[in-house]
Amino acid sequence: MMGQGRLAAWGVGLAALVALPFVYRDPYHLHILVLILIWSFAYTSWSMMGRFGLVSLGHGGFMGIGAYVTALLWNHAGLSPWIGIPISMAAAGALAMIVGYPCFRFRITGHYFVLVTLALSGIVLQVITATRDYTGGSLGYTPNRASGNRLLALQFDDKTTWYLIALAVWLFGIVVWHWVDRSMARYALEAISEDEDAAAAAGVDVTAEKLKITLLSALMTALAGAIYCQYQMFITPDTVSGIAVSLQMVFAAIVGGLFVSLGPTVGAIITILLAETLRIGFGTKAVGWDNLVYGVLLVLFIIFLPKGILGSLLDRLKLQRKVPRAHEQKAVQVARPGA
Amino acid sequence: MQAFLDVFDIYLLEAVINGILLGGVLALLALGLNLIFGVIDVTWICYAELVMIGMYGMYFMVQYYGVSYFVAAPLTIMLVAVLGAALHYLVIAPLLTAPPINQLLATGGVLFVLQSFATVAFGIDFRNLGIRLPVLAFGDMNFSYARLLSFAAALVGMVAVYLFMTRTFTGTAIRAISQDRQIMALMGVDTKRIYLITSALGGALAGLAACLLVLQYDVHPFVGLSFGPITFLICVLGGLGNFIGGFIAAFVFAEIISLGGLFSDLEWGYVLAFAFFIVMMFIRPAGLLARRR
């Protein structure tokens, strides 16, 4: 339960975030903020599964579907993103069910689950590249500029509107995170990640619980992809799908902290600021350096700080007040295949 | 109509044989990964990136320092073997007791490091050795010598690993550890040493694959992404750690890619292979040759 103080802090913080674009209008900084919010939402979506030991590298695929289906429906069928986004989310959700059901039914966990989902993002990437007559292949794809109603086309030129949209979507992600955190499903999923057989014996429907969280996570990731596409108005297979994007999600969520609601957001702030600083500081010479730093950080974090920056920080604070919950005392205690 | 069928058959046969040749290299890649998985119980997500570094090693030795191909190849194999051992020592060893997913993600971090290291150090240009091997015409079919050579070398490499694993004491110890990780330490086997040797061996196989792939493909920092995922799928399809399963799966995959590419674009071959993989996960979730538990 949230205390009065925390609720007040959230309220003040949100009010400040909403007020920000009306006070401060630097377009570049707003652009960075919008990117941070959109990617935070994507990382939060990933962490909803990841925190229960369901490490998926298929989320790049869901994000790609969200972005490309929305854009393709707009360009080829003239469907407004208001209809296209739900359709793309449904498509990603359907794919998640098709791949998730056998995985969970046949107890594909740990390494196997990671590699199966890796195949999934590989498929989506290859399909986007192979259907280059429609999707533009690796050269990228641009949704047509709307001639009429901008709201209908979900295309806006000013950063303030996009900032508010991204903020709303991000907030939605955080709310869903808390909703899952307080539901019975969380206890069921924690039990599953500790020991699947024991959880099943205790009356948890393992397959159904896993499917539910996977579906939720996939739907949200597709939404993130669609919003990203509408904001950037240009997508390439490599920026919204594939293994690199999936790994990027894993990386940000782990660096920020998997088990706290704002962890992925902190991860997004760190990674995007790092990339931008390097880009501005070194210009084209910086190509590759951001990923080099990411990679080294990822390895160091997993070895020395598996709960992430925010997670470890909150623990430090919490230790003085109360004993942490049992699952938080463990390091990233994720999927133990059949042991 | 008859003429059309004749042409078709020749192409089909050519595709089948090219698939077998491709399968040889894929089997070699899968063997290295399976070895690491079977013995250390770790998946090196960055395995294909080790191959990429090896390919750069070959490129620079042959192109810049004028070393002959056959001298550069052993050096590259040694270089990647050292890399593999270093990877184990620096990244995997501190995480041996951590949950397996953490090890896998840490090697994901290494993937980023190697890729961006190559980008920073060598740029994103496509480079090739500039060695043009002749094409062998057999009947109406064409096969590149590069592929034949790769296939032969991959087979030799695999036989060498097989002999090492079955005929030497170290090989026997490696196989024993893959059967029971805890007990072997009690039997007086130095598991740390065996892990290091296995990692170096896995690296060496990646190096050998690099020497062969550099003959057929251009090198660029993201080349690993083009055959990395397929290698993982082969290993999973064959059953992680199952050498024979991986060997068979490599050829099955290579045939699907080759034949799929014959009827349409090469990407569709890959899409077919991926789809086949997911369907197989329904039917045989623990791999082609899974032992029933």
TrEMBL record, chain A:
It is a multi-pass membrane protein. Keywords: Cell membrane, Membrane, Transmembrane, Transmembrane helix. GO terms for cellular component: plasma membrane. It is found in: Cell membrane. It comes from the Bacteria. The chain crosses the membrane at residues 7-24, 30-46, 53-74, 80-100, 112-131, 161-180, 250-272, 292-314. GO terms for molecular function: branched-chain amino acid transmembrane transporter activity. The keyword Cytoplasm does not apply. This is Amino acid/amide ABC transporter membrane protein 2, HAAT family.
From TrEMBL, chain B:
The chain crosses the membrane at residues 15-37, 44-62, 68-92, 104-124, 144-165, 194-215, 270-290. It holds the Pfam family BPD_transp_2. It is found in: Cell membrane. GO terms for biological process: amino acid transport. InterPro entries: ABC_transp_permease (IPR001851), BCAA_transport_permease (IPR052157). GO terms for molecular function: transmembrane transporter activity. Keywords: Amino-acid transport, Cell membrane, Membrane, Transmembrane, Transmembrane helix, Transport. It is a multi-pass membrane protein. GO terms for cellular component: plasma membrane. Belongs to the binding-protein-dependent transport system permease family. LivHM subfamily. This is Amino acid/amide ABC transporter membrane protein 1, HAAT family. It comes from Bradyrhizobium yuanmingense.
